[in-house]
Amino acid sequence: MSDIRDVARRARVSVSTVSYAFSGKRPVSPETYQRIMQTTNKLGLVTVSGGKVGPSPLLTAGHLRDVPPPPSSVL
Q: Taking the chain, what is the end-to-end CA distance rounded to the nearest angstrom?
């Protein structure tokens, strides 16, 4: 089963960057955010509380749930 480390490796970012994108606790550039969300979607995962990812019985029409909106500004 895939997890946050798989998302980070495939999106070519650090695990902490993926965690920040999922939690919204720190800013992530819009481009990086999009790449992380696309990677998460391709892996068939959805974020759950605490920045964790899991298989997605809730993945509907390619959209993720429980993910903060994309950042409004670039770092």
A: 32
Read off the pLDDT of residues 8-31 as tens digits, 9 standing for 90 and up: 999 999 999 988 888 888 899 999
Report how far residue 31's alpha carbon sits from residue 48's, in angstroms, rounded to the nearest whole number.
Answer: 22
Q: How many Cα neighbours within 13 Å face the side chain of 64?
A: 25
* Mean pLDDT along residues 45-59: 54
Closest CA to 65 of 29, 42, 37: 37
What single string gives the DSSP state of each residue in 3-51? Answer: -HHHHHHHHTS-HHHHHHHHH-SS---HHHHHHHHHHHHHTTEEEEGGG
